[in-house]
């Protein structure tokens, strides 16, 4: 048993709502607080001196100076398993080319597919671990990672094996998702419906057998898959036991309706969502995931985060870290910028980066600092929690703990 503290402030984020707007005065701030941990879990959170008196035999990890403690961030949407870069795409966007124009010219997702197919799973795992390490140093203690750059059975499996290999070498929890339904591969001879049937028959059973992922995703968009095919695919994947999620409403509207209709755990992107889509998401249990990194990378508007929260939706915020549309990968900076443009409260941002993001991954054991939850947390060198967003991502955590063990010394 270990007692960590005292912290100038602890924001436990406990007892906050899963859906809808949150005012900052709903935050419960524990001054001079401590966290008692045992076996990787939180045993108690409260006044440091009181916890020390009650738990006299606990090992003390004494914190000096002014520090503010938050739960570890959960990045619920990334494409971190990739090789190479797409700086050429970025330059083309700066020169005025659209996302679809770049894809049609041979860039975009297919460029990453080509590079993945030339790279071994060992090298992919090594590259992935470097990115995971950076994310962890910035307070991210759980990371969702998609396949989707293989687009062949053996190549998708290679990506997922690389994620599994990286997970074995990292303290951070890596949550794999099969995104074989990213785009229709150029080298597949059939129609989109045929390809999705191929994935259902030949890839997902292999993933289940090898326990490589418990989640399946699909991109519903022009140049990817249409709502009808996607609905059939997602329902079939759910019947096989996969949690399903959707790349929805990025450029056109339709994907979020599919996500709600099939009971997807999340609908991600939503930059093009209108009032009808917002209302439908808010009335559902599907988490709305905003990806401000993609908006910054593509130069498009942000997801309507304020309207989603006001309507009563559960809003998570993720980085979408990928080699094309969101190469920066700085989750806190992106969330800070989103908060300015969408007028999100500090409480709403922290909720979207922690327990609401955990809900988007169907994880209920993390995201807040309370008894029985994972001892995943991060400390910032400041005396007021409001300074964390005030510096718009430049203030990084000084210390990060995963399951009660400090990652950075």
Give the name of the CATH superfamily of the largest domain.
Metal-dependent hydrolases
CATH architecture of the largest domain: Alpha-Beta Barrel
How far is it from the N-terminal to the C-terminal residue, by CA?
A: 20 Å
Number of strands: 16
Structure notes:
With 409 residues, the protein is of the alpha/beta class. The chain folds into two domains: 110 residues, Urease, subunit C, domain 1 (Roll); 287 residues, Metal-dependent hydrolases (TIM Barrel, Alpha-Beta Barrel), CATH 3.20.20. It contains 16 helices and 16 strands. The strands form two sheets. Strands 1, 2, 3, 4, 5, 14, 15 and 16 form an eight-stranded mixed beta sheet that branches. It has an eight-stranded parallel beta sheet with strand order 6-7-8-9-10-11-12-13. Helix 5 packs across helix 6. The longest helix is centred in the middle third of the chain and has 19 residues. The model has no long low-confidence stretch (mean pLDDT 96).
